[in-house]
Amino acid sequence: MLSAKKKIYILILIFCLADVLLFILVIFPLTKRVGENANEFRGQQKNLRALEAQTVSLKDFQKNVSDLKNYALVVQNAFIDPTAPVSFLQFLEKWAVNYNLALAVAPFDSPAVKGDIWSSVGVRVDATGNLADCLRFAEMLENSPWVIMITRFELQKTVPTMAVQEKPLGEATLSFDIKAFSGKPAVMKKN
User: Fold this and answer.
1) Rounded CA separation 184/116 (Å)
2) What confidence score (pLDDT) does residue 48 get?
3) pLDDT value, residue 81
4) What stretches in the chain show pLDDT beneath 50?
5) How many whole angstroms separate alpha carbon 133 and alpha carbon 100?
6) Total structural domains within the chain
7) What does the pLDDT look like over 80-108, one tens digit per residue?
8) Of 12, 51, 134, 165, which shows the fewest CB atoms inside 10 Å?
């Protein structure tokens, strides 16, 4: 039979092996699973915060949707109708009358140029009147609600001629070409 000392060593060895097996088979997988669950929990927290931020953003968007619709209408009205730019031409005529200018307007074909985002219509404008009125008309056009680009600008001093009622016709002639955009994508022609 085994001595008491050997029995104690065997029991200690069995308990140590049992502890090692318990650690390897139970505690280690358990701590590993706890770590994985903690990582998953952190990921879920991040997702929850992102969803909360999206919810706040969506609520802000819903509050501002009427303003955005109004802005969209303003932007849409800033473009001309490329088939019949009547409202733009009426706008030019109205302001020419306001500034006492003799106005000649002629639309022309404005082909798309590389870099153009939208298709456009060209408008040649010749206005004759007082120098200050011509400059105010040009400034008004520059600050107008239309999406335009002035491609050519000429301001010339003219010799006043007398009209039928003995009033001078004008001391300056303002001439420029405008590229008025339609808001539709530009179509580049292939050569």
Assistant:
1) 11
2) 95
3) 80
4) 191
5) 7
6) 2
7) 887 778 888 888 899 999 998 988 988 88
8) 165
CA-closest candidate to residue 184, choices 86, 123, 112, 89: 112
Spatial separation of the C-alpha atoms in residues 65 and 173, rounded to whole Å: 46
C-alpha to C-alpha distance for 159 and 172, rounded to whole angstroms = 8
Residue at which a domain ends, from 31, 51, 77: 77
Q: Compute the distance between CA of residue 121 and CA of residue 88 in angstroms, rounded to an integer.
A: 11
Structural domain range at position 40: 1-77
Question: Minimal CA–CA distance to 130: which of 154, 106, 100, 151?
Answer: 100
From the number of C-beta atoms within 10 Å of its C-beta (0-12, 13-18, 19+), residue 191 rates as: exposed
pTM above 0.85, yes or no: no
At position 68, the amino acid (one-letter code) is L
